[in-house]
Design a protein that fits this description.
- This protein has 133 residues and is an alpha+beta fold.
- Helices cover 21% and strands 26% of the residues.
- The chain starts with a strand and ends in a 16-residue tail after the last helix.
- It has a three-stranded antiparallel β-sheet.
- A hairpin with a 5-residue loop joins strand 1 and strand 2.
- The chain contains two helices and three strands.
- It has a domain of 76 residues.
Length: 133
């Protein structure tokens, strides 16, 4: 069965600044306990090998979802809302993952703008969907 784990974490950077973040992980396992064991081993391995996780000090399980089968229609698997303006953050897709079995795709207008600049400067994202309110 397919399991998706949602995790939060605390980190302290080289300057002693505290940060908090979230990540998700996916695995094929027989039972929830088996999935948790696989997640734990994988996260411990990545903590020492993936640069983006080098400063993580605590990891919390937010929830784990089990899929008996992959839905034919889209479903939202997690929604999180925070108060206030969008906080400064860093995002990495598939950190430490190599190969062609899994790929990450960006929203084309945002990717094209970033590629035109060819640097790491911040570009505000274009909304995928906008609702009239």
């Amino acid at each position: 069965m397919l399991f998706i784990g949602y995790f939060s974490f605390d980190e302290i950077d080289a300057d002693g600044n505290q940060r908090h973040g979230y990540f998700s992980s996916i695995v094929d396992a027989q039972t929830p306990d088996d999935a948790v064991s696989k997640f734990e081993a994988h996260i411990k391995n990545k903590n020492s090998k993936v640069r983006e996780m080098a400063n993580v000090i605590n990891i919390y399980i937010e929830e784990i979802m089990r899929f008996v089968r992959i839905p034919q229609k889209p479903i939202i698997t997690r929604l999180q809302s925070s108060s206030g303006a969008f906080p400064a953050s860093v995002s990495h897709s598939l950190p430490g993952v190599a190969g062609k079995e899994v790929e990450a795709f960006g929203f084309a207008p945002d990717v094209e703008k970033q590629e035109m600049l060819n640097d790491d400067s911040y570009i505000e994202s274009k909304p995928f969907i906008t609702f009239d309110r």
